[in-house]
Design goal:
Lipocalin, globular, eight-stranded antiparallel barrel
Amino acid sequence: MPVNKFAPVFKIKKLKIMTGKTKWAIDPMHSEVQFKIKHLVISTVTGSFKKFEGTIVRNGEDFTGADVNFEIDVASIDTNQPKRDEHLKSRDFFDVETYPKISFTSTSFLKSGEDYKIIGNLTIRNITKTIELDVEYGGFQKDIEGNMKHGFEVTGKIKRKEFDMNFNALTETGGLTLGEEVKLIANIQVANHQTELG
């Protein structure tokens, strides 16, 4: 069959897929870190930390096997009640003067359907415990400045007594004023400039 030299030529462009390591930093303006604890058993008190930082180093196309490092400035705690915040900073709870930081380092970042599970070491008051966190992956999008962002909601639970935060008080009926279990909730955006690491 003769070749039509005037026929259009179509070239298929290959998409560049980043398979090396990339470093993503938490965007503090679009992220939040909260905790919830029962009060008098009948209601929940919510608090947050206003200062934190962290990175994720991704090893391929998705976040499977990624390395997470996260640190919280405990003095930035905010429960919307200054008197309560000061008590939480005291030796009864976080003892901020002695232990100013909370840190988390992942040991495992595994795919679970469309989402992930993270296992890692959480350190509070210089006590380190292994915890497991559920990670709901929100997807990715470029912001108005062209920076690629990924979003996650991270949830988990810890027992405060495991970190030597044993303070409690009794009600008139003998009940405890504070719950033992603390729920952790973090809504996180991470960003980078698509720079591959060596």
